[in-house]
Amino acid sequence: FEMMKKTTSALAIAALLGTGAASAATFQVADDTSITVGGDFRFFYTDVTDKAGDSQTDFTDDASSLVFAGEQTHANGITTSFYLDFDGFGTVGENKADDGLVTDEYHVSFAGHFGEVKIGDEGDVTGPVLDVADIAEGNDGFVGGGDSANVVQYYSNDLNGVNFAVQTQINGDAQKAKGKNGGSSTSLAGYLEAELGAAVVGLAYDQRANSEDEPIYGVMLSTNLAGVDLSASYVKDDATDAENERTAIAASYAYGAGSLYGAVNMVSFDEAPTAVEVFGSDASSEAPETSEDFTQYIVGISYNLTPNAYVFGEIGAFDYDEDQGDNALVGLVYGW
């Protein structure tokens, strides 16, 4: 095809990367077809408390990415598109090429008057509820959250302030054995939201039949008060042997040159979780935590150096034994 005018779009990079770095290159290759290329470099210096209670520092790459996307509008009114996000560059020191490139997310999409259908490896539709507290740049220490999966998703168009999404994760015979309890051929999830004046209310449910085999579900409320974006959620996780409830509150404020943000996550397990249930393979043993309840927080500030680059600082505390996972970090994000 013929290469035509090259343009840049802040909206394109925001959609591609989900960051404040506004940059990307969009090529209008035909009247009805465009290709966008974007990415970011993410350099972090971290100071994290390890499982022995000791401080460990690191200068690392945090999933720098290379993103390709394309869109084509057809005569029948359907728009087809694709999205492909590569991570794992390992751009700093000995991290270089540890594991090679990995595909973070990808999908193909068909959109029109009927809504939108996505097929691929995509963020879970329950994210607006399960991931309310997930607003940090470098911290991912909170218990819980929605995962990406190989899915087929449907997103409705706006229905007078009401929107919904449904997804199914389809496992064939080759994938069944990966499930915690033998797997399932399908696992369903859904999300419903409604605008109520200045607020948005959302409900989410994930069957998790191909992993935990126990559901997770919750409700969230979001609004803006005096320029501050506020969200709150309640989530019930019926995970086998790690059943818990969590309440999260998150806030962010754009102060002109950047943003201030923070989140509190209050988690209550039915019984004290094991270290493995909290930290996975990073745990020192399967011994339980000494508490059933955890109050966790993250606070941070970012400052825009240019329209496509910013620095930030964060601290996080997660209320675990020996302060494991507590951290302070600073970072630079450059989007292109």
Give the secondary structure arrangement, pairings included.
Layout: E1 6-7, H1 10-17, E2 25-30, E3 33-49, E4 55-61, E5 65-73, E6 79-87, E7 102-112, E8 115-122, H2 127-130, E9 149-155, E10 162-170, H3 173-176, E11 186-196, E12 199-206, E13 216-225, E14 228-237, E15 244-254, E16 258-269, H4 275-279, E17 293-306, E18 309-317, E19 327-335
What would you note in describing this structure?
This protein has four helices and 19 strands. The chain has 336 residues and is mainly beta. The protein has a 16-stranded antiparallel barrel with strand order 3-5-6-7-8-9-10-11-12-13-14-15-16-17-18-19. A hairpin with a 5-residue loop joins β5 and β6 (79-87). The longest helix has 8 residues, at 10-17. The two termini are 24 Å apart.
